[in-house]
Amino acid sequence: MALKGKMVIGQSGGPTAVINQSLVGAVLEARKHPEITGILGAHHGIAGIMAEDFIDLTTQSDAQLELVANTPAAALGSVRLKPGKAECERVFEVFKKNDVRYFFYIGGNDSAETAHIIAEMAKEEHYDFCTVHLPKTIDNDLRVTDHCPGFASAARFVALAFMGDDRDNAALAGIKINVVMGRHAGFLTAASALARQDEGDGPHLIYLPERAFNVASFQADVKRMMVNYGRCVVAVSEGVADADGNPIASTGEKDSHGNVQLSGTGALGDFLSTRVKEAYAGETVRVRADTFGYLQRSYPTIVSEVDAREARESGGFGVSHAVHSGENGSIAIRRLSSAPYQSDYFVTPLSTVAREATEMKDEYIHADGNDVTEAWLEYLRPLVGELPRMGKLF
Amino acid sequence: MALKGKMVIGQSGGPTAVINQSLVGAVLEARKHPEITGILGAHHGIAGIMAEDFIDLTTQSDAQLELVANTPAAALGSVRLKPGKAECERVFEVFKKNDVRYFFYIGGNDSAETAHIIAEMAKEEHYDFCTVHLPKTIDNDLRVTDHCPGFASAARFVALAFMGDDRDNAALAGIKINVVMGRHAGFLTAASALARQDEGDGPHLIYLPERAFNVASFQADVKRMMVNYGRCVVAVSEGVADADGNPIASTGEKDSHGNVQLSGTGALGDFLSTRVKEAYAGETVRVRADTFGYLQRSYPTIVSEVDAREARESGGFGVSHAVHSGENGSIAIRRLSSAPYQSDYFVTPLSTVAREATEMKDEYIHADGNDVTEAWLEYLRPLVGELPRMGKLF
Predict the structure, then answer these.
(1) How far apart, in Å, do the first and last CA atoms of chain A sit?
(2) SS3 content of chain B, % helix, strand, coil (to 5)
(3) How far does the CA of residue A301 sit from the closest CA of chain B (Å)?
(4) A270, B268 contact by CB (below 8 A)
(5) What b/e sequence results for B310-332 when a residue is b if at least 16 CB atoms lie within 10 Å of its CB, and e otherwise?
(6) pTM of the model as a whole
(7) How far apart are CA A195 and CA A203, in angstroms?
């Protein structure tokens, strides 16, 4: 028999363009189930639960929810907080007080770990309770799932950005370095390759955190592309590190998960610009760097249709699974076919996605370590959807 | 009687999302006039003319031209080159050799100056010749015209960027500084204000190059907004300077027009982040800076409909004017009405737009110097077009 009680839903970690689709998918599904006696949205995830800072999502109009679903970032507010024992005890105090029997947490691997900790604590306390993690990350670095809701929309933003920027670079030739989000995994940086439509189109070089970054090789690569094409567009992950794992450039500041701050600064782009200028010592060369920054995860209207649909459906699937089985887990996507693209959803134990993240497979990375492979593009294309054709007069 | 001969068309200065609309508008209009015996596109503007590096635009298919019109950046290639006497002589050598009687140059005030120099030289040489400048700049800083083709699409990009980024900042509260393009004029930075839909929405502060930037006032402004809203989104022009006109932060590098390099570096954003952290010495505060960079002028698919149409029509109007009158000039836009939005085109002497640029009127800038006025929003709204509504749950 299904658990009966209220549900709490929260959002955690970095926002995405479609995290609110998952929220709305879960809420709309929950409304179909009488076992769920109330739908509480927690402001700022775990922090909001501890503060009993909830919004009642039981009665929001469909029109309002649709507006929210199509709005980027986390409508409930997000948080970066890994709860310890004391925090968990407070969470359960609130859950018991409010007769909460379901907890849905939308986030990445850190959020899955939070969900896992909560689930384990419920078992210890013999509290009849179901925790489901709903996947979300532009980094695409969750284990088990074929890909993560949020990634394809960010990938679409990056692909379009490189398409336009490559035309800009063709118009005013020079060396252009674009720094892309992705702390440990190069998926989003690798999405830049979708910008290529004709021979000679950029990005001409792609550097991923999965491979050690060597400044001298980078300088040589750029000079070779300048000889070949008279210009060079570079995609580089914010997370590139040297052979010892040290970030190439960073402010040294850490976030509350203990991760070094990479986004929200132009340090890496400016560092690489300077290295390129050094490589051309004495010669005049036009070098520019842009750091795409938060636009990649929160730009309105640039959304992959597949991503929006899967984010919505995975939220609904998670709630349906919880009500029908009462089992903890994380929702994952299985790719059934790439052409035509088809997928479905399944449940994987929280422990299989919590904490540890994954990275790009070797088969997706060019042997030279400065580009991607055709296998990568085959994986990515159906997720991002059709892109506009760039018109050229050269 | 109309001049008979070939036309040369070129693009100059920084690319925009709709500069190719002006190109295509001019080409399609030119094809209607038997007086124009050939349409030569100059690769990289004046540089291409000197090198006789032309593409024949007489016979391109309409489908190909439409693809080009909807592609950002400059399809012919662009250039930043102010020709001196020797360059002008070479240009006329090429024009005479190829029986060129019309010259259309799409660009900003530097490009208008080039057109003006060429036109003056033709007079001196008694060469029957017509030069028309077609306006283009995301900076919106051309004199005479109500606004410049290219601006509204960049403004739309910036407004959407701030809408999404403000939701991101609401989800994970802190201080977010976004650096927007615009060397001397704050129009594009001021477009960020369109992101506001409800009380408390960012940007909470807007700094324009039209007002001296004072670091201590900036720090105090940010702290006040943090007290009011618990978060703060800042729009700041890349061109902000202190009371003596010195840029707040720059690499010191200059482009070929002698302008200090402001874009393509994260220096200003990082500088301002550091100043904010200093203002909160000892306290933990989340500060991030993004520099929107070249995406503002070349991001595909983010286009204002009014802007695309006016860019196209101003190109056609320029050619029609040249054939019918043979008079040199620059095309400008006159606003006939804001609601409903209506405009038409007229011709202004090259000297009135060449060299000197303009900036935001005082009535558009808040008396405190850290925001815009309602009059500014009334001017801007019809140009940018409808924006999506952000859904909220707070």
Answers:
(1) 68
(2) 40, 20, 40
(3) 8
(4) no
(5) bbbbbbbbbbbbbbeebebbbbb
(6) 0.96
(7) 7
Chain mean position to CA B226: 32
Are A209 and A185 in contact, with CB atoms under 8 Å apart? yes
User: Of the candidates A387, A314, A347, which has an alpha carbon nearest to the alpha carbon of residue A137?
Assistant: A314
Find the residue in B nearest to A391 (Cα).
B68
Q: Which two tokens stand for residue A338?
A: 């790439």
Question: Could you tell me which residues come within 8 angstroms of residue A158 by beta carbon, excluding any fewer than 6 positions away?
Answer: A180, A188, A189, A191, A192, A292, A296
pLDDT digits (tens, 9 = 90+) for B227-266: 999 999 999 999 999 999 998 886 556 655 555 666 667 8
Domains and CATH numbers, chain A: 5-149+302-352 (3.40.50.450), 152-301+360-384 (3.40.50.460)
Q: What strands lie across the sheet with B232-237, from one edge to the other?
A: B205-207, B232-237, B175-180, B287-291
Paired strand residues for A40 = A8, A56
The full DSSP string for A117-135 is HHHHHHHHTT---EEEEEE
Kindly write down the DSSP assignment for every residue of B17-45, as one continuous string: SSHHHHHHHHHHHHTT-TTEEEEEEETTH
A260 DSSP assignment: B
pLDDT at residue A85, rounded to an integer = 83
Low-confidence residues of chain B: pLDDT under 50: none
The values of phi and psi at residue A329, to 5°, are 165, 175
In our burial notation (b when 16+ CB lie closer than 10 A, e otherwise), range B185-215 reads: bbbbbbbbbbbbeeeebbbbbbbbbbbebbe
pLDDT in tens, A183-194: 899 999 999 999
pLDDT at B84: 86
One of A139, A165, A307, A371 is an active-site residue; which one? Answer: A139
Residue A165: both structure tokens together: 């920027």
Question: Given this model, what pLDDT does residue A82 score?
Answer: 87
3-state class (DSSP) for residue B158: helix
Contacts of B171 in chain A (CB under 8 A): 11, 15, 73-78
Q: Which of A59, A168, A180, A390 best tests the B interface by mutation, with the highest count of B CBs <10 A? A: A168
Q: Are A320 and A104 in contact (CB under 8 A)?
A: no
* Six-digit token string for A47: 């922090």
Phi and psi at A179, nearest 5°, equal -95, 125
Restricting to A residues 268-297, those with a Cβ less than 8 Å away from any Cβ of B are: 269-270, 273, 287-295, 297
| Inter-chain touch A391–B66, beta carbons under 8 Å | yes
Alpha-carbon distance of A112 to A103, in angstroms, equals: 12
- Whether residue B295 and residue A298 make contact (CB cut-off 8 A), yes or no, is no
Range 46-75 of A in CB contact (< 8 A) with B: 55, 57, 60, 64-75
| Rounded Cα gap, residues A314 and A310, in angstroms | 6
